[in-house]
Design a protein that fits this description.
By secondary structure, this protein is an alpha+beta fold. It is built from 20 helices and 37 strands. The protein has a five-stranded mixed β-barrel with strand order 1-2-3-8-7. α4 runs parallel beside α6 and α12 runs parallel beside α14. The chain is rod-shaped, with a radius of gyration of 43 Å.
């Protein structure tokens, strides 16, 4: 070699310089990438760090660079910092040997495709002649996984995904024991309806054909959406969170979608944080499993649409977990959004919520401002609104975009069974409350609807009619027809849809649907006929038999008094139901004994709430309603089955079991009032006497009552104490005067109308007086009133009772705006 001058023995000028290799160990990576990106370079693999990390010598410029395989991550061998021992991950040594045996110290083809966040080059290594992709071979052998963060840089992403899918199917190496998501229980493709959008990338769906309660929570796979805030926790959330959720709501809620479950992930439990470290507060969360799916509205991928609008990012998978099969389409959508500068890529600030704290009229501080918005909402017959939240079947929280405010809205004239209260852990829902809630929630939640505002209640809640989307009609009528609501007559009758509401309720009631199960129609008064009482030729009172015949058309009922409120007002139960109330209380005591876990401290009823309260006299629980909150932890309750009230401590109240709720079993005590009479207050001498006379007649006794009229929950009655003369009885009301001709009481029409009644006795004794302006409905009412007025005039003349010191109605004269009745009441129809 020396003699021939070969190699290092060459004596030629410049030979040593030409054959000396100068290696650049710190090349300018950005400049190198810009110059050589995408080209097929010749390189030598100098070192294998791991199966997906190498050091290459690029030829012919002798540049030494590190290179990570694009789209592939493999197990690695780590060294323990304390012991120095190597700690290989599963299949790390096998994967490294696989790479070393094929490319170490060999000439290969290298394609530079990008850089990672640390500045290292990312690219592809291929065989020098066959151009076999090393990354794909590692994946095909089950010795690596797709690296989602870098697969988008690869020139052959489809090849890599196909190779990984083959290893998964063959259960090779890393994929031993792998179960495809589609093979797991509940992971098959299905059709569903979106009922709620919880977040921009979180949906609640109900499979087609399933019950409304079979809701499934889904996360859009491959999407990272802005995190929404929580006003109650003081968390403002991330920018574009509202716009992203609103996009998903408009695109999906209420629509039929195709759900393709792809994988599940377990989210670790976390503790609540207050946000004092600079981040927002975070609520506590137990360990949960989430299902990730691709959701299609028609043929459009919902995730791709959201990302394409610039309102979310592709969720890159850095932990080697499963990813969506549509990841490439998501990356394409994100690139397009960036190029068009849409949404979060525009550089503009998001608009955020369309209302501020002062425009949320559901907040306690803003309820007084609701009145100012009423005229604007009433101006148009229908106003567009978006339902943000469903409180229960008949009450909602709505956004009115035109006015830029959030309102509380309730269906006018309709009552749904009450749901269990979240702020009262021990409370229970009334029967069919959950069904009514499900119907309203499925029809309105997060939907764009039209509302008719009719009025405003004292709590700042707007009352009116809600019209379901897609022309499905009034929600009030839908609830009534389904038997999931009942009318509130005074408010329903004022509604412009009063006739339709009444007809819908009647259909459900006749079919005994839901809340009407077991309903028994009460005997109501016959429609009052427009008839005239026959009179005598001289114009005097009509014949007694004609009056009795007319009064006989009014319904009668046997009542047993339970409580007397004043001289003319009392509560009574229909005869035969007194023991039923006791049985209801015993049944509730049994529920309490079995429940046992209900704590009195967890139950805090509000005014108007139904509950079970312990009666002090016998220590038993009875159905009651809270009428007032008192100091020192006490409440005033009204026992609905007996009509009496008392103060009791909160510890003596329990939630009412649905089986004996006021909806399932209406109150047994009826509020009754002596028709056409007014009594002095009970603290007055004659008021006490009047109340005592009423108590002696009705309390604990069965008494026959003639029902003059029903109005709301009150009955105006005439109590029959004896049979009137001429009908088999003996005698008349105490103190009843005779007619002008000396005939006995009960022989003419006027006295016959009131003879044998407690109403007449109280008026005749001067313990009660006749109403000044009673409602005269027909000739029967007129005859009764004229009879009572005759008795009242006689009591005035004799200075009895309240008339002892003269006429107490003397101030009822024209100077005070009172016009006395001059014509005979019974002749009103003439």
């Amino acid at each position: 070699a020396k003699e021939a001058g070969l190699g290092m023995w060459s004596m030629e000028e410049g030979a040593a310089a030409r054959n000396t290799r100068v290696v650049d160990y710190a090349p300018d990576v950005p400049a190198l990438l810009q110059r050589l990106q995408g080209e097929r370079l010749t390189a030598v693999v100098e070192h294998v760090n791991s199966a997906s990390s190498f050091r290459l010598l690029l030829l012919p410029d002798f540049q030494s660079v590190p290179l990570l395989l694009s789209g592939v991550v493999t197990p690695s061998v780590r060294r323990n910092a304390q012991t120095g021992a190597e700690e290989p991950q599963p299949f790390a040594r096998e994967a490294k040997y696989f790479a070393e045996s094929r490319v170490l110290h060999r000439t290969v083809r290298a394609v530079l495709e990008g850089v990672d966040k640390s500045g290292a080059l990312v690219g592809t290594i291929m065989h020098i002649s066959a151009e076999i992709n090393l990354g794909a071979e590692l994946l095909r052998a089950g010795l690596g996984r797709i690296a989602d963060w870098s697969v988008q840089l690869s020139s052959e992403p489809a090849l890599l995904r196909q190779a990984e899918a083959g290893a998964k199917g063959a259960r090779l190496n890393l994929w031993r024991g792998y179960t495809p998501p589609a093979a797991r229980e509940g992971m098959g493709e299905y059709q569903a309806r979106v009922v709620e959008v919880l977040g921009a990338d979180v949906l609640l769906v109900v499979p087609v054909g399933a019950a409304d309660g079979d809701e499934r929570r889904l996360c859009l796979s491959g999407v990272k959406a802005p995190r929404a805030g929580n006003e109650r926790r003081g968390d403002a959330g991330e920018p574009w969170a509202y716009e992203a959720k609103e996009w998903t709501r408009r695109a999906a809620v209420g629509k039929k979608v195709r759900v393709v479950p792809e994988f599940t992930r377990k989210l670790e439990a976390r503790e609540a944080t207050t946000g004092t470290d600079g981040g927002g507060p975070v609520a506590a969360r137990p360990e949960v499993e989430r299902t990730y799916a691709a959701v299609f509205v028609g043929e459009k991928n919902l995730a791709a649409g959201l990302i394409g609008a610039g309102l979310a990012h592709v969720n890159t998978n850095a932990r080697g977990e499963e990813i969506t099969a549509h990841i490439d389409a998501l990356h394409d959508a994100e690139r397009a959004a960036k190029e068009k500068k849409l949404g979060a890529h525009s550089g503009k600030a998001p608009t955020g919520l369309p209302w501020g704290p002062s425009q949320d009229l559901t907040l306690p501080a803003n309820k007084a401002r609701a009145q100012a918005f009423l005229p604007a909402l009433q101006r148009d017959t229908r106003v567009r609104a978006t339902v943000l939240h469903v409180v229960h079947g008949a009450r909602f929280k709505c956004l009115v975009p035109r006015e830029g405010c959030v309102i509380g809205f309730a269906l006018a004239g309709v009552r749904c069974p009450a749901t269990a209260r979240r702020d009262q852990p021990g409370s229970v829902a009334e029967p069919f409350a959950d069904e009514a809630f499900a119907l309203s929630r499925g029809a309105l939640l997060q939907r764009d609807i039209e509302i008719e505002v009719e009025s405003l209640d004292k709590n700042g809640v707007f009352l009116g009619t809600a019209h379901m989307p897609e022309g499905k009609g009034s929600l009030s009528i839908a609830l009534l027809e389904a038997g999931l609501a009942s009318r509130i007559p005074p408010a329903a009758d004022r509604s412009r849809h009063a006739i339709a509401l009444e007809a819908a309720e009647k259909r459900a009631r006749d079919a005994r649907l839901k809340v009407w199960e077991g309903w028994a129609e009460q005997v109501a008064a016959e429609p009052e006929e427009e008839i005239e009482l026959p009179t005598r030729a001289d114009g005097s009172a009509p014949d007694a038999s004609a009056v009795r015949a007319l009064l006989g058309r009014l319904p009668e009922a046997d009542l047993s008094g339970t409580e007397v409120s004043d001289g003319v007002t009392f509560y009574a139960q229909p005869c035969g139901t007194s023991d039923a109330a006791v049985r209801e209380a015993k049944r509730f005591e049994g529920v309490l004994a079995n429940a046992g876990a209900i704590s009195a401290a967890s139950f805090a009823p509000k005014v108007g709430a139904a509950c079970a309260a312990r009666f002090g006299a016998d220590g038993r629980y009875y159905r009651a309603k809270v009428v007032a909150l008192l100091p020192h932890g006490e409440v005033q309750v009204f026992f609905v089955d007996f009509g009496n009230a008392q103060a009791c401590k909160l510890a003596e109240c329990r939630p009412l079991d649905p089986a004996i709720s006021l909806t399932a079993t209406p109150p047994l005590a009826l509020c009754c009032k002596l028709a056409y009479l007014v009594a002095p207050p009970v603290d007055d001498e004659y008021g006490r006497e009047c109340a005592l006379a009423l108590s002696e007649t009705v309390l604990g006794r069965a008494v026959r009552a003639r029902v003059e009229r029903r109005q709301g929950g009150e009955m105006a009655v005439t109590l029959l104490t004896a049979a009137p003369e001429g009908s088999g009885g003996s005698g008349s009301a105490s103190g009843a005067p005779s007619d002008g001709e000396g005939a006995a009481a009960g022989t003419n029409g006027f006295s016959a109308a009131v003879a044998g009644t407690l109403n007449a006795e109280l008026v005749a004794m001067g313990l009660a007086r006749v109403e000044r302006r009673p409602e005269v409905r027909n000739a029967a009412t007129g005859a009764v009133l004229d009879g009572l007025r005759a008795l009242q005039e006689d009591a005035k003349k004799n200075r009895l009772g309240i008339w002892r010191h003269g006429d107490i109605e003397e101030d009822d004269c024209k100077e005070f705006g009172y016009t006395p009745r001059t014509e005979s009441a019974w002749s009103k129809k003439k």
